[in-house]
Structure formats: structure tokens, C-alpha cells
Amino acid sequence: MLSSTPRAIHPGAWWLWAIGLAVAVSQTTNPLVLLIAAGAVTFVVVSRRSDSPWARAFKLYAVLGAFIIGLRIVLHVLVGLKWGEVTVLPLPLIELPDWAAGINLLGDVKLEGLLAAIFEGMRLATMILCIGAANALADPKRLLASLPGALQEIGTAIVVAISVAPQLVESVRRVHRARLLRGDGARGLRAFRRVAMPVLEDTLERSMALAASMDSRGYGRRNATSPARHRVTGSLALGGLLAMTVGSYGLLDATSPGWLGLPLLLVGVALGALGLASGSTAVTRTVYRPSPWRAAETLTAACGVIAAVAAFASASLEPAALSMPLTPIAPPPLPWILTVGLLVATLPGILTPPPPLGRQRDRSRRAGADPVRHREIEGSRP
After folding, report:
1. 188: helix, coil or strand?
2. Is residue 344 part of a domain?
């Protein structure tokens, strides 16, 4: 472990780690690899999540992933392309009119097509699990404070959006506890109406409190800037976006000239960075308790990047191992490069500092406010 002192990891490091894992997962439909990736994500979340409300939302993303897999199976049975040789579920075929573009309902479900639908659903579910891990590990408020000033407005909107699920889970838990204290143990559809209205009311109150808090702290206020600065900032941002778009197309198209790929993409990134720097000068703000970037953050981000690089390396060196053979059906091979990259991605759950819990956060705040009093309190504890 790099440090045994509890502290919160920079939220940007957790998001880079999760995005790297999501990119790695997007390159494969091998069920063994997807299960390893889901296990790696779950291990890190269980090891390094705090007791904050957003940390409890990871189960919600897991349930959402399971729902996606089930929905993918249902859609395949209803309107999916029934291909393969082994019939596992004989169903009558309902032919639709010509205006339905050849889509038919039901039909005999083949094993090969059903497995392909399951693996596609597993891939999407694992990617959602990676994003849920970032949402459970990273403090959205600290993430907003770490964004450049030019991204303040859009960053606020994104942070509010990704905070909806954790806050909704916390509201449901609070309302459920209140109902139990009142002796109301109803479940199912009867309890839905009794829970829905208090949850919506609590959500509205939180939204109003958040809006008032943001307004009192000056969110959305900018310094006076000249029209020339506005034009320069807009030109840099637009030029950077165009260059990055064309450069990305050049990387994906093997027939494009060499200068249209990586060089133009790097130019776009540079122009975008200059545009962010120019736009950030119009925003004056202070950051309370800024998030440091240390060795643990570098390790966390590097583990996610290594997983993504391992996926692209496996796609080049062992492409057949990234998918399960379906014709004929055979045990899925294990891509060793990608597997090693996913195992490396579990290192943040072991080598990074543990998160501070509620009591530890309170003690650190008291220590910062009055160190002498903090020592007296600690000395009096058994």
C-alpha cells in the first residue's frame, strides 16, 4: 500500500480508471473476460468505497446491468434474428406485413443466437457497472471542484445528473426507515404510492436546496471579458473539436493519409486545451480543500489505461480469444494479455489508501480546527 493514512482519492483518477476498464470491456464478448472484469470492478468498489450516499448506489447499477441482460434476451426471443442450428425453444412464427421491413415475431429460438444475445447484453452490463463504480468511488462535488473553470456550467449539469441515482437511493432508504418506524410494513404495489410521493417531495426539496446553495456560492457568475477574448476562445474550442473529429476519423480509416490521423488529433487536443485555458480566465473561484494528485492517483489512472491498452493489444495479437466460438459452440479461450490487464486493474483496491469514514472525517475536521482539543479528545478515548 502506498499510504495507510485514510484519505479520499482524486475523483478524476477513479473516472480515468473506470473509463479505461469500460474501453477494455467494449472490445470483447468473451463471457470469461466479462466476468473477470465485473469481479475486478466489484472488488475495487467493495475495498475502496466510503460510507457516503453515492457509494451505496453501486447495487443499483448492478441491478440495472442484470435488467439489461434480461431485456436483451426478451428482445431476441421476440424480434431477434434466429440463427444457428440447435433449437432450444420452439415457438410459432408470426409474419408481419411487408411494411415491417422483414421483421417477424417469435420463431424457433436457436442456441447460437441466444448465446450471442446474452454475451452482447453482458458486455453492455459490464460497461454500465464500470461507470457505476466510478460514480460510487468518486465524490461528485469534489469532481466538480477539480474541473477547469471553462467547464463549470457543463460540469455542474453533469455532476447533478450523475448524482440523481445516489440521491434517489438515499431518499428511498430514508422514506423506508420512516415507514418502518411508523409501523407501515406494506410491500409491493400497495407500498409504491406511499413511497413515491415522499421520495418525489424529498427530491424536490433537495433540488431547491442545491439551487439556493449554488446561487449563494456564485455558480454561473463570470468576470467581464472583451468581445475579442470571446472570439478567440470560441475559435480555439471550435477548431479543437473539428481537428479532434477529423483526426479520430483518420485513425479509424486505414486508407486515409498519415497526417490525417494522430498528428491532427494531437493538434485538436492542443487547441482544445488552449481554449479551456482561455475560457477559464473568465471564471474566478476558490477551491476549499483542493484534491491533491499524488502517487496513488497516478497508480489508479495508470491501471485503467493499462487495461485499455491490453484490450487493444489482444485485439491485434489474439483476436480470436476476444469472442466465444458459436459455430460450433466451444469453450471460450482466455486472452492472456487482456486478462493480465484486468488483474492489474484490481491493484487500486489493494495499494491505494483506504477512504475516510464518517467518524474519521469528523476527527480530521476537528483536528484542523483545534489540534490541542483534538489531542485531548483522543487521549480520553478508551
Report:
1. coil
2. yes
